[in-house]
Amino acid sequence: MRETTQQFPCPGCGADMVFDIEKQCLSCPYCGNSVDLSIDGDSVIKEYPIEKATETASRDWGGKTVIIHCNSCGAEAVANANQLTAECAFCGSIHIRPQSNEDLIKPESLIPFKIDKQTSLKKFKEWLKKRYFSPNDLKLLAKEEKVQGVYIPFWTFDADTNSFYTAEKGIYYYDFENVYVKDASGKGRYEKRRVRKTRWYPASGTYRHIFDDVLICASNQEGGNLIKRLEPFYTQELIPYKNEYLSGLCAEKYSIGLEQGFTEAKSVIRSELYKMIRNQINADEVRNLRIRTSYSDVTFKHILLPIWIAAYRYKDKIYKFVVNGQTGLVRGKAPISIVKIIALTVVVLSLIALFFICFRNRY
Length: 363
Known about the structure:
By secondary structure, the chain is of the alpha+beta class. About 20% of the residues lie in helices and about 40% in strands.
């Protein structure tokens, strides 16, 4: 792959600078120079009306970027043109190619990496050691070059919701009934017992709630479930986007568009409204709850959240290990060694057989 002109040249030696996670600045790996990335006090994180997304949301990523397409898994990442990688972060394939940038909505904000590469690699090695039933040669995959830093795309949505609901609410009351019971000898008799019953009443009303930063992952990669399990991300630490934070890293191109993202957000909102309204109804039980919701003042923003990912192939299958780049939380999948499972089964069965032999000889 051909590299283009450097985008963040070091003022001291002219080499490419990269984002230093520990110092939270641009740093030169050769001469040690650093460039401060402090946020301007006037910088604000904007949210855009969803109905005017095509008009208001910026497409300027702040520098020369290129989309890298993987021919193996289909993943697409946005990277600085001078930071082209030779390997796909999502499947480890080398069958990747750059292609022209598209009309992508620019990230409005991001959470910079707080966990560095060495820490994520250490976590990867520790995680592999705990995979007791994984193949022995799996530890050979715990190499530094196998762990890559990627910003994952998310949408956040704000919405003012007004809901009308109908339901049936149940109120408990107690009554006494004659119950036929049998004693230990099998003789039956009737006795009075206190029994809980429910009276049902119609219920209806309105409920208003303003949702803030409903988080929707905009990646549909196979590892999306792993990424979901890395939550929570603390969005109060979002800062305005700067292209410099991508230096030495890459960002996945969103594959779930704005419209689909809002559809998923409404599903999350409906689930939350169901719980909120159910709690609002003053009853012991609620059934047949139906909710009609209208949305207003819906706004969105495109954000990037940090993860470290190790995508490795083992016997033609792809396995992934991910680390939350903000909190250090780890999740992953690993292959299982059939030989180890069989060996353990044989040992357990042998111990059981030995126990029965000893038990029989004793008695």
